[in-house]
Amino acid sequence: xxxxxxxxxxxxxxxxxxxxxxxxxxEKIPAYIQIDSLTYQxxxxxxxxxxxxxxxxxxxxxxxxPRTIPVLVSGDAVVxxxxxxxxxxxxxxxxxxxxxxxxxxxxxxxxxxxHNINPAFSDLPSVHTAWLENFEQSAIxxxxxxxxxxxxxxxxxxxxxxTGYIGRIQISPSDTLTEKxxxxxxxxxxxxxxxxxxxxxxxYKCNEPFEVRIKAYNIANGELHDKTVLFTYKxxxxxxxxxxxxxxxxxxxxxxxxxxxxxxxxxxxxxxxQDSINIDLDDIxxxxxxxx
Length: 292
Description:
Elements: H1 2-23, E1 31-35, E2 39-40, E3 50-55, E4 58-63, E5 67-71, E6 75-86, E7 94-96, E8 103-109, E9 114-116, E10 120-121, E11 127-133, E12 142-144, E13 153-156, E14 165-171, E15 180-185, E16 189-190, E17 198-206, E18 211-218, E19 224-231, E20 235-245, H2 246-253, E21 257-266, E22 277-289
């Protein structure tokens, strides 16, 4: 009996000792990183969806912003931020934007203190721009495909970070001589990459959805491929930015193709025949990393 009592006493004391140590263990107090905005040179709004945050080159997490981020690091540290996008408009294809440089801030992190970091990004030196249309020049590179399609109007537009011009497409109720309205790049673009990242990007605002399409011409035999690569969704009041994985398209087609991107607008079954279709476009570009 005494032996059993002694065993229970030893077990009780051991558990009590470790329990006290566990609950009395001093918890670390986090420092905080506050991210309110991510900006990109020459493009506004950039519509980055998130920030990839690293502290001392270790990933803390992927955060939508604005966000206050707790980090269990104190003292001198390196905070690295990379912008994230929803590739092809899908949140499940969220990824780091590969054309951008990296924001790196050396900072002394203090527990309980909020440290504000709002990085500005720009293209890497290795980025090649195959097409850019920002409607700031007198001659634009996006035109109506035929005489039945109303021409794009270049109008001044003011929004946060932007005071220049945009391209405006207006399809009125009287435009009924064709069922589709195409707006196309005036020429064909040779693309010289297969494996490197590349995007077809554009900013838009619209009261009806529209298609983004690609024509691909085989240089050797003249074969034409014409396909829809994206459907947008309505956004009548807020500017959106779309990033299409152009590298995937190029890999599927293979080498030796020229590309002609274009936008197609249709009156849908639920479109009110008395309403005009209004689409604003800006900062259209095809960019990719040059092979080193």
